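Course assignment 3, question 2. Fill in each field.
Student: A.L.
Task: Predict the tertiary structure for the chain below.
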Amino acid sequence: MDAVELLALTLRFASAIQVTYVGSVDAGRLAVAIASRLQIDAEVVVLDGEQLTAEEGESISSALLGGRTIVVADAGGTELSVRLVDTWAAFCDAPQHTSSSADRHIQFSPVPRGVHLGRLVLVSPEGRAVASKADRVWLQADDVSVVVADGSHRDRARRARRLGGPKPAGGQVLRDLCLMHGRDPRGTVRRDLGAALNASDPFTWTDLQTLLRWQTNSAAPLLAGLRHANRLGSDVVQALDAGLLDAASDVRRTANRGRVYSSIWDLMWSQQVGRDHVFRGQWSALWPLTPTLFRPQSDGRPLTVETLRKRVDTTRRFITVLRKHQGDLFGGPPSEDELLAVAQHYGFPTPLLDYTRSLSVAALFATMPARGQLVEPDCVGVIYYLNTDRAELKVDTGAGEDLPGFSMLDAADIRIGLFEVIEPALGAEDDRIGRQSALFLSGFEERDLSSVSIDVMLFEQHAGDVYEDPATAVTEADILPADSVLQRLAEKVKAGRSHALTYPLPPKLAEARLPGAGLPGSTGANLFRQVRAASDFFPRLSAALDDEERPRVGRILSDYFRLAHARAAVGEELASLGHRAADGSPETTPESDAALTPLAIALERLAELFAVDVRRLEQQVHGALGTLDDEYYRGGPPDHESGEAVALAVGLYLASWEKLQHVRGWEASYLASAAQEALPDA
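Answer field:
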């Protein structure tokens, strides 16, 4: 039995094998020969380096989890190759219960029992690192010669895929593709692809860019037809003959569709975000969505009252200067919002957060620091994108005619914010807001804004890799003019050379609320699932109440949230207030605790309002809190005619908030749905 026959036999019993060989043969060539001699289908992968793209890593993961055999050649002396074979061997020991990661792009998740897993063979020369968990097979020099000679004559000869190696040209190709429209004259219109193909005028570089971006796989016949119709200019034809289509196809094939794009150019070439979105770019995905007024101090220490006071004072002084020169700058008295928006765009602390309608502008802001900043390894930039028509941003449940005097967002202290278009009438050089297609988010809190399902695009930052598009005036010089009247005024104020304060604070600045803690557990997707349920619940609740009951139920709900906030602020001691032993110490009996919880107080008041048995109501609600099954109507279903159903519905809705505060989001959703089901039909 020769060494390869031994390998084939070993593969029948081992999930991971390291083949160590003696000699100077290329590892990739030997791996192809070994795969050709194996009596199974096998894919050959040559690892040239440690840096895999998401697509490359996914191809390895899906192949192994899909039951295929991979022969990996360690051509670059990488640690990844040994880590891969060891990780796969360990994963296969308990695939139903194990999650393993050999690389950030190679992930193995648990699979159901009975799933057939693949086999992994690592081929590496003598002297390389040794896998500790894989079986080992040696090939001596004579064996290597025989295997290579024999494998090259077999019908099953494979072609190896090279992964993980340097891709120096890829970034430049992507950049050229992203900026291809810049070869057209300024003002060239970007047409829909269908309109461009059906027209009779020359096919522009902008048209070609659209075609290559969205129809790469079917571009060849379309371009052939355009060439036949003499609609391609000589420069376009020359670029195509030089391999432009092949380069675009390679980019499309290798572009990162994973969690992190390989570069800002990869992101911009691959993105498919709709035109109804707004964007915000940030250098680091680790930075929170905090407005400049409330960010930590420059040295990283927490924000202090003194620092906050100085920030407000600096912004106030700049706004005073703007008012003094309002005739020259604005042509008339600007609004308070316009003054604050200008201060934001000239580097003064405000409670506003900048967004833009332009993805390109967001990309520029996300990468500008790369021009002169040392980029740390694994630095990941982010572009947030958000559809301003999203329902979550328009919720105001319980307000108005539903329950007078009660608003769910106010009661629960949820501040998602409001997008505002603020467009002061400034001169062209001073109008940074217009140049950046900016709009502003105000009245929000970072903890709540981050909880909305805001989509993100992540990308790897690289030194010197700044996204700029001169053809569309998206450059640092275009959107941040270095020399303008407003810029000089801003620098004067920041240097401390300004007049004394003479005007009051703008309302938004004066009324900006400090970040709060919120109710425990009331963050994340669960919170907004709860809020959306409220937008359906409260109109139905209002319809089930008469004119006298609506304000009283609103007060019960408001008091519940007020007490819940107080309880969260001071802890469980609130439960025993008013219940003191003879020596003055608080009593801690379950009865006293239960009697003073916000939910218990609300249930007692609901029972009084709707003239129902408070013990029965408590039993029904607490049964729902404890069992979460269909048996929570203990003692029979509620009496819809007596108002018991309405009392139970409100009690169940408040019970859902109790679950949310204990970070039991799905159970909270269950109870919120049960509350709607308990309501009588209008």
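Instructor remarks: The two ends are 83 Å apart (CA to CA). Residues 391-400, 572-595, 627-633 have pLDDT under 50 and may be disordered.
Grade: pending
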